[in-house]
Design a protein that fits this description.
By secondary structure, this protein is α+β, with helices and mostly antiparallel strands. The longest helix has 18 residues. The strands form six sheets. Strands 8-7-6-18-17-16 form a six-stranded antiparallel β-sheet, with helices on both faces. A four-stranded antiparallel β-sheet has the order 1-2-3-4, with no helix packed on it. It has three domains: 50 residues, no CATH class; 207 residues, Beta-lactamase (3-Layer(aba) Sandwich), CATH 3.40.710.10; 80 residues, DD-peptidase/beta-lactamase superfamily (Beta-lactamase, 3-Layer(aba) Sandwich), CATH 3.40.710. Helices cover 29% and strands 30% of the residues.
Length: 355
Amino acid sequence: MTNIEYDVLSFSRRQIAEDNTEIFYFYAEKGIEQGIIGVYGNNNQTLGIWHDNPEYVGNLSECTTIDTAISKKCKRLLQKGMKALDGTYGQIAVIDAQNGRLKAWVALEKKDNDFSDAKLLRNVFSPRCITTIGTAAVLADIDANLEDSIDAGNGAYDTEDGLKIRDHNWRTGGYGKMTVREALVKKSNVAMYKMTQVAMGNERAHDVWQEMMDHPHSTNAMEIAASTWSINHEDASVYPTLKGDSVEVAPHNTTTPKERQYIKEVLVGLNKAGGIQADYAPRGIELAGVYGNWGKDYYTEDNTLTETSFVGFFPAPNPRYSICVFIHRPDEPSHSPKDLATSVVNELISWLMKH
């Protein structure tokens, strides 16, 4: 047994058995598991007891706020969406927007052309879907106005330091001049990058943008749903602990009221007339939310998709629920956010509003 075999290996204790055999115990971590390994001193044989590492895998066994009916509905819709979008792994989380408690968190994976329950991986989803949210917050921070003007040009923008930024319509001429609000609700990458440059300067904007676009899988559906809903919460951020019905409350010391106002206005505007998501927004419900559709190389013509997602809360004036849905879709470029909306999101929103 060597350190090379494990991500973490540390001595725990030494014990002498009734037959005077020495047993050395070690704490170990490997991948998403952690365990205790016993090594017999007389022959170096090992025996290990392993379980999921809570740092990497969510465990709902002690969470008392889970709604069985919501969980079953989420699982059925996630399977439907993964079939429609050829997904390999996905999660849905539902947060009660009245108190921040977790109502559902489910995961499925595809194996041998069938779908089965999967581990609630904590570091499996990229927060790039909330890039628009981050840009809105940056603008509020520098006291910019959403009605200010910005020029997205022809939808293609190459920086001096090597970034290639493209709007979804760059092949047809781009958006040109518009207001900051219009740029955000149309999700113009060129405009958002230029806004970041104004706020942070060229060098810092490059680093921040690169980090946002290349951000590794570092979060999950539950965390993103809780974070997005907390934007709407005036007093503090609230996160489920998965222990009983308790939540962790953290004062808003990183976002200002103006930042939260801008973010909410943009999340609502995305789904109204003029917003890029308006055509597939649910009818009769004011939705504050954003879709993400990300590829292996987002800045070139190689848009091989790897992840599609939605996060939002509703109804926007007085939210009842916050949800996050994401599906991994390696090498499957033929679907758009509209397909996620029609196969999963809109039906889930409609059902939850009646639940």
